[in-house]
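Reminder: ligand-aware prediction takes two inputs, not one.
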Amino acid sequence: MKLTGKIILRKCCAYKLLEEVKALAERRIIHIDMDYFFAQVEMRDNPKLQGKPVIVGGKASGRGVVSTASYEARKYGVHSAMPTAQAHKLCPNGFYVTPRFEAYKAASTLIMNIFKSYTDVVEPLSLDEAYLDITHLVRPDLPASSIAQYIRNDIFEATQLTSSAGVSYNKFLAKLASGMNKPNGLTVIDYRNVHDILMALDIGAFPGVGKASKEKMHDYGIYNGQDLYDQSERELIRLFGKRGHGLYNKARGIDYNPVKTTRIRKSVGTERTFATDMNDDDKILQKIWELSHKTAERLAKLQKSAKTVTVKIKTFKFESLSKQRSLRDPVRDETDIYNIAYTLYTELKDPDIPIRLVGVTVGNLEKATYENMTIYDYI
Ligand code: TTP
Ligand code: MG
Ligand code: MG
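Here is what comes back for the chain with thymidine-5'-triphosphate:
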């Protein structure tokens, strides 16, 4: 009897594991990104700009930067984040337009509503793009690519704007796919083509491989997905720390990250516990700076600014103390958050009492106004 029980148990476990693997392998993820978004809106609203090299951005005289450029302008080498003055040199006959954020926001709202009409599991990444998990749609008979096509059609009908879609079984591959046939493209990455695509992929195109890591990769002879694939997991962890594991997986087309639906957040914050009780103001303030930086980063991701800043400390006797400041003008910048946190800390901290934890939280969040946005908000 006992033995049978064990066997059944084993079967159940194996079955459960199989189900989990299947669930991951069978996810259906779509990434949609609008084509030359700001520029396309401008071209839609002003027919004279049709087919022209259009550059949307700040003024060259005011040290402005390019928000985006139409594909015609990209042929001249113009791209996002480039100083507008430089764009003028590369493309002197371009049509330069200052951004109209309200128009982009209006288009964005229409697009996001279309996404939500297909699935509740939508993760917007910026005004013009989002991940959608359509695994649990009631029409499993429809290929994900057809659903992506329906969505693109709906977007075009509602906004007269084209978009590109990537369809795959995880977020990393879906996003990679959406960029492969831009503009106005639809690309599927599945088990048949994933290997070839990844092996040929430039190492800089793997998520998390920025400029610095790309150089480091080159130093180690890793130029593309194949070179990455050839590294052992142990070696990648040795070279890139915690990220090594993720990189090892990415080379194999594995990404377990779920599509995260946005929740309404009331506050954002981080805290750190010190390894030993701490009474060194310099070290604590250094930590507060790091926490302010992290908090600002998270606010930027959420495209929010905050009207309260709170500093919390826990004394060596585990007593929690906190102090909050409400602000007339919302903050989102790390320096502003730090300056307020610094004042709160000095008001809160007893010089004779060591602490074991410090935290910085911002609350009363509101949508960041576009005027305050930096280009980093779009990346
Ligand atoms: P992206 O989707 O990165 O670019 P895009 O839509 O202009 O072009 P495509 O997707 O076809 O390659 O960004 C969306 C919008 O965000 C873009 O139209 C303008 C804005 N943006 C900036 O303002 N600054 C930037 O540095 C970037 C990358 C984007
Ligand atoms: Mg885009
Ligand atoms: Mg985008």
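Residues 33-34, 37, 128-129 surround magnesium ion (ligand 2) (CB under 6 Å). The mean pLDDT is 89. We will return to this case in the review session.
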